[in-house]
Amino acid sequence: MALLEIRNVTRRFGDFAAVDDVSLAIEAGEFFTLLGPSGCGKTTLLRMIAGFDLPDGGAIVLDGKDLAGDPPERRPVRTVFQSYALFPHMTVAGNVAFPLKMAKVGGAETDRQVWAALEGVQLAGKADRYPHELSGGQKQRVAIARALVTKPRVLLLDEPLAALDAKLREQLQLELINLQKDVGITFVYVTHDQTEALALSHRIAVMNHGRVEQLDEPSRIYGFPRTRFVADFIGHCNLFDGVVAASAPSGGGSLVDLDVAGLGRIRTLTQASVPAGSKGSVAVRPEKVRISSSVTQGADDNHCAGHIRDFLYMGDVTMYVVEATGGQRVEALLANSEAGRTKFFEAGDAVEAAWRFDAGHFIPG
């Protein structure tokens, strides 16, 4: 049985369903992420797990026990907020000790547990500092130490890295991964940042309009999106809409030919049987697309000719937008790895684009 089960949970605000019949099962020791845009219901769901908000329907079960009657302070769950919520008049040690004092833990035992918690987040040397003397990353680690000191079964993290700059955020992502491994506690993490979710998580639930669109491992979410929303929300993605012209069985799925306006006929794979005449989309990640002034087309390639309409230079890579002869736009991501070259093409250059048939993924329409 899973450690934490969300069973058909619904939360309404008037006529608006912030969380709409959501069911999830989260395993012990898992780093589980709720990912989605603002207003998708992820924070509302987190608040219900914490006990700050109550569901209108369904159940939240931890270790086989329904938490419905338990107030936040009685749940074996702790929350780390984006604002850190540290007491400014207390030292680092005082902030971490606060929940133990509320639980009337003895002084010597409190000192021992506080020291162990600060050691765990590499802040033992900052015990006597005050929050205003700490960096943003250090404040975040104090908040995590305070949450972990009571040894909760689940740690909830609500966008804890959102206020940090990009370089520090990347550093703390690595620290969070290692910390979660070390303490072995289940983390339920909320973020709108797709890259962060892919980097941190064992599994991700992508939410949209109060529902879970897809629940899977990061590589499956990225490589095999089940819906158009997931494909478009997770990273950059070409989405070519069309009508299935032909479909043949292939390895337990189907080899599909799709007629796409402004691009022509393209071929892709799908894991399901798709009848001719049905509508759908092919999702192709830009890094799977090759572009050149002359592309050698293989037997398994989709291919189009066009010109560079625009490009976005991002340092290590450049995103090129190719406008095909028929008017469809294709994005290609190229690494700027050749010595002395910062980019390969200029706007207006004639190019050809190609990608293998199995580089794309069919999404039913």
Secondary-structure map with pairings?
Elements (H helix, E strand, L loop, with lengths): L3 E10 L2 E11 L4 E5 L6 H9 L6 E6 L2 E2 L10 E4 L11 H11 L4 H14 L15 H13 L5 E5 L7 H18 L2 E6 L2 H7 L2 E6 L2 E6 L1 H6 L4 H6 L4 E13 L2 E8 L3 E7 L8 E6 L5 E3 L8 E13 L3 E8 L4 E7 L14 E7 L4 E4 L1
Helix pairs in contact: 2-3, 2-4, 3-4
- Report strand %: 35-45%
CATH architecture of the largest domain: 3-Layer(aba) Sandwich
Unreliable parts: none
Main sheet summary: 6 strands, mixed
The H-level CATH homologous superfamily of the largest domain, spelled out, is: P-loop containing nucleotide triphosphate hydrolases
Average of pLDDT? 91
**Structural class per helix/strand content?**
alpha+beta
Order of helices and strands: EEEHEEEHHHEHEHEEHHEEEEEEEEEE
Q: In percent, how helical is the residue content?
A: 10-25%
CATH fold topology of the largest domain: Rossmann fold
Structural features, described:
By secondary structure, this protein is of the alpha+beta class. The protein folds into 2 domains: 4-232, P-loop containing nucleotide triphosphate hydrolases (Rossmann fold), CATH 3.40.50.300; 236-364, OB fold (Dihydrolipoamide Acetyltransferase, E2P). 23% of the residues lie in helices and 38% in strands. The protein has helices at 42-50, 92-102, 107-120, 136-148, 166-183, 194-200, 218-223, 228-233, and strands spanning 4-13, 16-26, 31-35, 57-62, 65-66, 77-80, 154-158, 186-191, 203-208, 211-216, 238-250, 253-260, 264-270, 279-284, 290-292, 301-313, 317-324, 329-335, 350-356, 361-364. A hairpin with a 4-residue loop joins strand 17 (317-324) and strand 18. The protein starts with a strand and ends with a strand.
